[in-house]
Specification:
Blueprint lengths: L1 E7 L3 E2 L2 E5 L4 E7 L8 E4 L4 E4 L5 E6 L5 E7 L5 E7 L1
Parallel strand pairs: 1-4, 3-9
Antiparallel strand pairs: 1-2, 4-7, 5-6, 5-8, 8-9
């Protein structure tokens, strides 16, 4: 299982993560910011939407069947990040 941890604090750190195609992958979101905007992380392309309170850690499984670049953002679409699936 491929994993990447993204810390939510004044945005996303790191803002970009890479995975190999055709291998199971998960992103672990770790919430360290109390901003209401950053309490939600969503991606239409990757089909996830999670709510996080300060101190929460949530894991999202990513579909890696199609190589490409996929955006994710906060609930207000002000902070952005990217998942890159390499072939």
């Amino acid at each position: 299982m491929q994993t990447a941890t993204i810390i939510i604090k004044n945005g996303y750190q790191p803002t970009e993560v890479h995975f190999q195609a055709q291998q199971p992958a998960q992103i672990i979101f770790q919430q360290e910011d109390s901003s209401p905007c950053l309490s939600e992380v969503q991606s239409t392309a990757l089909q996830f939407k999670v709510q996080l309170a300060v101190g929460d850690t949530k894991t999202v499984t990513i579909d890696t069947s199609q190589p490409g670049e996929y955006e994710f953002a906060c609930g207000m679409n002000m902070f952005h990040g990217k998942v890159v699936i390499d072939s």
